[in-house]
Amino acid sequence: MKQRVAAIVLAAGKGTRMQSKVHKQFLLLDGKPLLWYSLQAFEQSQVQDVILVTGEESVEYCQKEVVERFDFQKVRAVTAGGKERYHSVYAGLNVLLKECRYGAEDFVMIHDGARPFADADLIERIRHEVQIYGACVAGMPSKDTIKISDEEGFAVQTPKRQYVWTIQTPQAFSYSLIKGAYDKMMEREDCQQGITDDAMVVERMTDKKVRLTEGSYRNIKVTTPEDMVTAEAFLAEKRRTEAEIGKK
Ligand code: CTP
Ligand code: MG
Fold it and tell me: Which of 11, 122, 134, 229 could be a cystine partner for 113, CB 3.0 to 4.6 Å?
């Protein structure tokens, strides 16, 4: 059977750091919910199946006001996430098995719905590299010097900058690798401490090495209010570029 690639788009967070009335994934950017941008990117990519994970209270809203309203054809299910990001990812992985029968041959990309600028080139790079390495995550070399502090807030270590990356999504894996790693982790509460991304689950629960794939400095996660200002500027720039190309 042909290898399939799915995307799990995460939109079940509460957006605490954004301090907005509506959860940040539903904030409007140029008239469309933030979440629309990643769904649109996957719709136009080689990814075949999309699972949208949102809060239990937003499942119906997403189905009607996002998926049906904007006619996203690849969304196979809108499902409820959980308390932590990893609970939401696990819900998505289980739906992929149940609804789409994903298995050992297949691949899955996990993407934050709060990252509106994962473009076609990036998704294609990730798709290409996951098929080679079995596990890869988007990231960029850190522009800033990074310091590790002690508990009192004093610098104790400065890692060599050439080895420091800031990590983004999509994060992509062979389906059986990531499902196996998550199954194991979900059984062990002591392994769940401090999990902030999917690569960490693979690093903690398996021997598999995760490849760092070049992301983009534009592929920001909208986290705090000023990120919306940046997102608006990036979008305006994108529109200008598209208009220029259209003129040629
Ligand atoms: N996410 C999720 N389920 C959770 C927590 C987060 O699906 N229980 C999603 C968010 O919706 C977001 C992505 O994971 O698209 C990255 O998480 P983050 O930026 O931390 O979003 P929030 O958790 O919503 O924000 P905050 O941490 O500020 O509360
Ligand atoms: Mg969070």
Answer: 11
Query: How many Cα atoms are found within 13 Å in the side-chain-facing hemisphere of 68?
Result: 7
Length of the chain: 248
pTM of the predicted model as reported, rounded to 2 decimal places: 0.97
Ligand 1 cavity residues, CB under 6 Å: 10-17, 25, 53, 81-85, 87-88, 112-114, 221, 223
Helix (H, G, I), strand (E, B) or coil at 19: coil
Ligand 2 centroid–CA 223 distance in Å is 9
Q: How many CB atoms lie within 10 A of CB 226?
A: 9
Buried b / exposed e over 49-66, threshold 16 CB at 10 Å, is: bbbbbbbeebbeebbeeb
Q: Strand, coil or helix: what is 10?
A: strand
Q: What is the pLDDT of residues 16-58, one digit of tens each?
A: 999 999 999 999 999 999 999 999 999 999 999 999 999 999 9
Burial 177-208 (b: 16+ CB within 10 A, else e): bbbbbbeebbeeeebeeebebbbbbbebbbeb
Rounded to an integer, what distance in angstroms lies between the CA atom of residue 31 and that of residue 220? 19
DSSP 235: H
